[in-house]
Amino acid sequence: MKTVLLDVKAVLLDMTETIHTLDKERMLKEFKEKLWGKYFSNVEFSEFKTAYFQAYSYYQVGLISNDKQFFKMLAKTLGCRFSDTEIKELISLHQKLRIHFIRLMPGVIPTLNYLRKKGYKLAMVSNCVKNWADKDFKRMGFNPKDFFDVQVSSQNTHYLKPNPRAFLAAIKKLKVKPEECVYIGDDILDINGAKYTGIKLRILFEKPTQVCHYVEHIAGTKSPTTADYVIQKLSDIRTIL
Question: Given 98, 124, 152, which residue is the final one in a domain?
Fold first, then answer.
């Protein structure tokens, strides 16, 4: 039975594993075979992974601002030295590899069109490097501006979900109230953050093959969720909104 939510004005959606997929196993395989093996084989792959995600965490919140700074930080952490030409090669190769492990989520375009037709304002709220996301979407032939009224990335706001400030940045731009919003995402921690932001309804996009997020992996436990609904495919949103 479809729930009628007359007072909902906006829908906030996560990006990674909601708007597009991210095959983490394929990503690490590509990095090991084509990036680490060519440029960083002087260190163990486990060291490369740790340094990569450390540099990513800086980029993710805007502490570094471009790919050149990212790879220089990565190289410095691992004790490597690269010429400007080699840095350009690394940047180019890294972008080409992303083609192999990022895809649009099945059903995303019809679902976004459905939500827009229903009159909801839409925002994409992501803990992402927007520099990379923009290029990924361009390669996939997807223009977020065709669907979203607002895009908020941690690179620009410097706030990571589940921090309420990440959600509030989008809500303010949409000119709505938290209680007039719905949040849809795959991360339980973000779902809980949306609740404490005052967002009216939280929908967890849970996929059978989904791997728990890093924080939960370290903790060894799965966080309790404040989700109001759980869906297995994006089109299921139509039964709720």
Answer: 98
Cis ω before 162 (30° cut-off from 0): yes
What does the alpha-carbon distance between residue 218 and residue 214 come to, in Å, rounded to a whole number? 6
| Residue ending a domain, choose from 62, 78, 98 | 98
What tokens does 110 get? 């019809």
Distance from C-alpha of 31 to C-alpha of 50, rounded to nearest angstrom? 13
In angstroms, how far is CA 126 from the centroid of its own chain? 5
| Residue 44: partners with Cβ closer than 8 Å, 6 or more residues away | none
Alpha-carbon distance of 172 to 122, in angstroms, equals: 13
- As given in the structure block, the two tokens for residue 165 are 């400030």
Is-contact 55 91, C-beta < 8 A? no
CA atoms within a 13 Å half-sphere pointing along the CA-CB vector of 157: 22
Identify each DSSP E strand in 46-101 by its residue range.
Answer: none
Provide the residue range defining the domain that includes 233.
10-22+103-239
pTM, full prediction: 0.90
Query: In this structure, which amino acid lies at residue 161?
Result: K
Dihedral sign for Cα atoms in the order 134, 152, 111, 97: positive
Nearest to 228 by CA among 178, 163, 194, 110: 194
The whole-number mean pLDDT for each consecutive block of 10 residues of the chain, a chain of 241 residues, reads 66 96 93 94 95 96 97 96 95 96 96 97 97 96 97 96 96 97 94 94 80 45 78 93 92
How many other C-beta atoms can be found within 10 angstroms of the C-beta atom of residue 101?
17
